[in-house]
User: Which sequence fits this backbone?
């Protein structure tokens, strides 16, 4: 019997009719080498069925504790692949704009909490006979690193791998005993204030270093609608590394700089550029290298990104210094401040706390705590195949919430760096311009490297 972790419980509590907290991966494939040159939903279901025993979150169903006295539990359950693996198609001509619109609509929908919290969509009809696969997984079950781990299980280094014989039979488990859950919840309710008191000094020390409620307000820092738009950008990883080497910074610093440059252009075009820099929340994984357990093992730093810096090279240096300072303070104080902060709150009050925090970020008398989410997920370096079809690209997508109507996530794959941008449909209707400008910002920096 496994219990949802503290961060996972907060992600669940933060959802409502307008806010979803799942993540997703959009994979485009070339099925031309498959029989009849087509990837079918039957082939995808068969592939997932063969690997279901390897992906625990695909078999987990939520079980709530009565009266909300404690965090929910996960119970192993049977999986209806006809429900979870679906098929849709784009009308001709099947261009990228149509794909972005279809993905945005699917991404906007809640996952069904009566079933394991994932869905997979095979999207047919892309130009030149291509297809796409969108996989949604709830953040309560997997963070960015373990989401990438799931993706690695679903893909192969060769088109037709030899799977280990006799894949394990998926065994369902009975739901946790209601009485046992209630007793555990009541005991934890008594212990929680003592645990909170013990965690409080570390939380206060960690929060002291964070620039809380000092960000400028933008049009994407309001209450979000239920609807989304998607922006996609593809860059050459070697180009990013050339910039990294020229300025003696990290790949992540370059990502922060080009994101800041793209946001600066958008804010200028909309006559919104503030004098102060925007503030980004940047997830920090607490996992080591190699396979790890599912759930959430992450913290976050709040970083001022150089949208106030007019020069591209100045943005690279400023992003580098800002990240150095944020990560140094993060290591010196409390690396798990995020989870510790959530543990201060009784499970009974987690939902109310989530609403309060997002409400404060949109409350007009206060400046926002932060403006945008920016994250960087390491991906596979080599060519991969999905159900025998060659994987062309992998794009990560993550959710938005009230006060944070824009999320930029990047991922590397096979020599490319892709950016998936999720935005509120009304607040940033032209989100693709931000994606295009990220690629243009990299081109500007490359020109400086070559000069």
Assistant:
């Amino acid at each position: 019997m496994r219990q949802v972790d503290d961060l996972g419980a907060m992600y669940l509590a933060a959802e409502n009719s307008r806010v979803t907290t799942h993540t997703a991966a959009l994979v485009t494939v070339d099925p031309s080498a498959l029989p009849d040159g087509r990837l079918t939903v039957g082939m995808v279901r068969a592939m997932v069925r063969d690997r279901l025993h390897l992906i625990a979150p695909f078999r987990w169903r939520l079980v709530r504790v009565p009266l909300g006295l404690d965090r929910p539990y996960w119970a192993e359950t049977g999986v209806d692949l006809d429900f979870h693996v679906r098929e849709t198609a784009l009308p001709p001509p099947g261009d990228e704009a149509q794909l972005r619109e279809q993905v945005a609509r699917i991404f906007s929908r809640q996952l069904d909490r009566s079933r394991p919290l994932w869905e997979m969509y095979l999207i047919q009809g892309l130009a030149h006979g291509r297809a796409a696969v969108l996989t949604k997984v709830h953040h309560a079950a997997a963070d960015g690193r373990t989401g990438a781990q799931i993706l690695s299980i679903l893909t192969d280094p060769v088109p037709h791998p030899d799977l280990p014989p006799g894949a394990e039979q998926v065994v369902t488990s009975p739901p946790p005993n209601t009485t046992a859950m209630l007793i555990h919840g009541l005991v934890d309710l008594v212990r929680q204030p003592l645990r909170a008191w013990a965690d409080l000094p570390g939380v206060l020390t960690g929060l002291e270093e964070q620039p809380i409620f000092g960000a400028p307000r933008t049009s994407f820092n309001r209450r979000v609608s239920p609807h989304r738009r998607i922006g996609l950008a593809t860059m050459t990883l070697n180009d990013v590394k050339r910039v990294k080497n020229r300025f003696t910074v990290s790949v992540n610093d370059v990502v922060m700089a080009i994101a800041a440059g793209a946001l600066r252009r958008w804010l200028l075009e909309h006559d919104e550029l503030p004098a102060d820099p925007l503030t980004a929340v940047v997830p920090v994984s607490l996992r080591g290298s190699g396979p790890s357990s599912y759930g959430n093992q992450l913290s976050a730093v709040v970083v001022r990104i150089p949208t106030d810096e007019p020069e591209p090279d100045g943005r690279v240096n400023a992003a580098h210094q800002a990240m150095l300072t944020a990560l140094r303070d993060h290591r010196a104080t409390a690396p798990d401040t995020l989870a510790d902060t959530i543990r201060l709150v009784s499970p009974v009050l987690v939902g109310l706390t989530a609403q309060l925090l997002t409400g404060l970020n949109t409350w007009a008398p206060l400046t926002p705590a932060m403006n945008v989410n920016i994250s960087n997920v390491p991906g596979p370096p080599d060519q991969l195949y999905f159900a025998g079809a060659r994987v062309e690209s992998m794009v990560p997508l993550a959710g938005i919430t009230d006060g944070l109507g824009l999320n930029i996530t990047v991922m590397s794959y096979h020599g490319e760096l892709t950016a998936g941008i999720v935005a509120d449909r009304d607040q940033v209707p032209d989100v693709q311009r931000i994606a295009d400008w990220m690629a243009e910002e990299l081109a500007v920096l490359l020109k400086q490297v070559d000069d």
Remarks:
- The domain at 2-160 is CATH 3.30.559.10 (Chloramphenicol Acetyltransferase).
- The mean pLDDT is 89.
- The chain is about 40% helix and 20% strand.
